[in-house]
Amino acid sequence: MDEAVNTLRFKAEDAALLSELVFGTLRQRALVDYRISAVSHRPLEALSPWVRNLLRLSLYQVLCLERIPAAAAVDAASEISRRHGHEGVVKFVNGCLREICRQKAENKLPPLPDHPVLRLAVESSHPVWMVQRFTDAYGWERADAALRASNLPAPLTLRVNPLRARRDEVASRLHQAGLHVEPCKHSPWGLKVKEAVDTRRLPGFLEGDFHVQDESAQLLGLLMDPQPGWQVADVCAAPGGKATLLAQMVGPQGKVWAFDRKNGSLEKLQATLRRQGLHHLHIETRDALFPREDLIGRLDAALVDAPSTSLGVLRRRPEARWQARQDAAPGQADRQLKMLLATAQYLRQGGVLVYCTSTWDEEEDEGVVERFLARAPAFAFERAQFHAPGAVCTREGFLRVWPGQDGMDGFFAARLRRQA
Known about the structure:
Layout: H1 2-8, H2 12-27, H3 29-39, H4 49-64, H5 70-84, H6 87-105, H7 116-124, H8 128-138, H9 140-149, E1 156-160, H10 167-176, E2 181-183, E3 190-193, E4 210-212, H11 215-224, E5 231-234, H12 241-250, E6 255-260, H13 263-267, H14 269-276, E7 281-285, E8 299-305, H15 320-323, H16 328-343, E9 347-357, H17 366-375, E10 379-382, E11 399-401, E12 411-418
Parallel strand pairs: 5-6, 5-8, 6-7, 8-9
Antiparallel strand pairs: 1-3, 1-4, 2-3, 9-12, 10-12, 11-12
Helix pairs in contact: 2-4, 3-4, 4-5, 4-6, 5-6, 7-8, 8-9, 11-12, 16-17
């Protein structure tokens, strides 16, 4: 979509509309599909992909956008179907859309499913299996709130660089620029910006005064609590937000190694390091499963921000809910455990190991921690309440943020310490 905007040189308002149409349709796909299925004489999966997506895109405008007249959306769909298909396709698309428009105008849209899981899957627009898994694991109220929050736009959250500025100073400059800014509830470095803006144009960006990062990810710094002068490794560092946070906390007298097997993602971090003055953060292409031998047993702390099913950040990637596989968690958990066992080798006695994911799936979260402790008797679990705010800690001692909680992304983390 970025490529299309740049290639076609869209105006800002046209680019914003394109973003709304694409991401809005993805967020509401289950609801849109439910309405289409009720009026189509052909199963949705039997339609050509471009016809199916044209119906989805058009119906999203009819059902969810007030600024676009329904007649205009239907006429545009008819024109597109005429351009790309035969007359039968035009009649089919036009007929489906006009029938739903009639139902909406007469307040006669068919009721949603009676079964509570199916109903929530349609209302929150998530796969049925995902809704069932969430409700089974955490209960109906929690699942309902988190899944609905995954359809809300994510706020713009900044993390102030304490090596360059104070949070109140950055907030004051942003206020003077005409923006509405408020401090985050839990992170001592966080600021929420109410407006959707290009962060590269904000005062303080070029000076490295802040970094864009969700508040939930900022809490990682509180949980690890690295001290000035510590040596730390982030073994899944791309795109680098957590590594820069750790580098700011250990200060110039410390050192942070940012490892990732994706070389291209790390290269983009170089400009950020120069802008933020983080000369003590070292980037290296390295798979987390193969620790750097000269650092084994030497580091004060290590972070495993493991790739996961990412079910906690679906508001930022609305397409991911439709790409996620129902059977993906076990394979992810096995790889996450291997990463944790490999990374544990870096730590000296007393060293801190933090494991985190951006999913709410128990198998990838608490399950991986339990399996690690069973395999690594030298490590002990430490309760998150001793380092992070109680509102984001579970009774069991994990750091857990639910999607939408205080406007944050879903996040899980656990703190472990090497005893011997």
